């Protein structure tokens, strides 16, 4: 049995690809977004039955400015934020509609040295003050936003495979402000963490 490293883009794990190949640790680049991620990972897991656990890594945005840019964090739970229905000003989750499950939790007993935060997965990253404030109203414990995390948890859950999600914070969730992004810092810190994790575990 072996692990699988999952990332949305090659860029996010580029520095570690030689190490992964040397250690014969498989990795999967799914593409950006929950749809491509769920399909790519579901297909891979169906065809590779020797995968024992999945590690999803990538960059993400933070709603909480107390979390420093570049920080590497673990995701405890992840929610498909838009999955449900509107009833006037009220949002009805997929759970309350009794049509499925919208929140998934990490099954992680390997990574215990990182701060843990709850996250949401979205099709459209937030960049509007009004919509950002609604996230805090509806899900006050959520600190992190990505476009793939819950899809990875979902696909792994369907195959009964343990999964952990690690994110490096590249930006704060705010009106789009590319000059404030720290993508290079986040990528560097993420890859430093991933390198140490692979060397110590595989």
If you had to describe this structure to a student in words, what would you say it looks like?
There is one protein chain. The protein is α/β, with parallel strands linked by helices. It is 29% helix and 31% strand. The chain is built from five helices and ten strands; from the N terminus they run βαβαββββββαβαβα. The protein is globular. Helix 2 packs parallel to helix 4 (149-158). It has one domain: 3-Layer(aba) Sandwich (Rossmann fold), CATH 3.40.50.1580. Helix 3 links the parallel strand 8 (116-121) and strand 9 (142-146). The strands form two sheets. Strands 3-9-8-4-10 form a five-stranded mixed β-barrel. The protein has helices at 17-22, 34-47, 129-138, 149-158, 183-201, and strands at residues 2-7, 27-29, 51-62, 72-80, 84-87, 90-93, 103-105, 116-121, 142-146, 162-172.
Topology record:
Blueprint: E1 2-7, H1 17-22, E2 27-29, H2 34-47, E3 51-62, E4 72-80, E5 84-87, E6 90-93, E7 103-105, E8 116-121, H3 129-138, E9 142-146, H4 149-158, E10 162-172, H5 183-201
Parallel strand pairs: 1-2, 1-3, 3-10, 4-8, 8-9
Antiparallel strand pairs: 3-9, 4-7, 4-10, 5-6
Helix pairs in contact: 2-4
